[in-house]
Amino acid sequence: MALSQSIWIALSSQPNPEVELHSLDFEESVNVPLEENYEKSRGWQEFLKGVLDILKQEGYSLSGWKGVAAGNVRSGQGFLFGRI
Predict the structure, then answer these.
(1) Containing domain of residue 27, as a range?
(2) Nearest to 70, CA basis, from 5, 18, 3, 17
(3) Contacts of 11 (CB under 8 A, 6+ apart)
(4) Bridge partners, residue 33, by sequence
(5) What is the pLDDT of residues 16-34, one digit of tens each?
(6) Of 5, 14, 4, 78, whose CA–CA distance to 46 is shortest?
(7) Number of domains in the chain
(8) Looking at residue 56, which CATH number applies to its domain?
(9) Is residue 50 part of a domain?
(10) Is the pLDDT of residue 1 over 70?
(11) 3-class state of residue 27 by DSSP
(12) Using CA atoms, how far apart are residues 51 and 57, in angstroms rounded to an integer?
């Protein structure tokens, strides 16, 4: 089964060691420091924290970036950036 849903992220690097992401779908922003362990919470931010955590566990050297995200994925389908 192919997925017809998508998430788009436009980003640019920044010197601060954090990720700043704004969701156009939810009209919310989140700042995630790269040096911290992430506390579990609820919401679309968990997807971003999960991706960053896995990259860190795999040994990737992360640098800061800021961006904006949008998508056409309905809430509750495993991805939480978008809504229809």
Answers:
(1) 7-71
(2) 5
(3) 65, 66, 67, 68
(4) 18
(5) 999 999 999 989 999 999 9
(6) 78
(7) 1
(8) 3.30.230.10
(9) yes
(10) no
(11) coil
(12) 10
pLDDT for residue 20: 97
20: β partners: 31, 66
- Quote the tokens at residue 3: 């997925």
pTM here is: 0.75
Instruction: Report the b/e string of 41-76 with b at 16+ CB within 10 A.
Output: eeebbebbbeebeeeeeeeeeeeebbbebbbebeee
C-alpha 14, offset from chain centre: 16
- Does 44 reside within a domain? yes
Element (H, E) at 20: strand 18-23
| Mean pLDDT to the nearest integer, 52-70 | 95
Indicate whether 61 belongs to any domain. yes
Q: In what order do the strands lie in the sheet with 65-71?
A: 7-13, 65-71, 18-23, 28-33
Decide if pLDDT at 84 tops 60: no
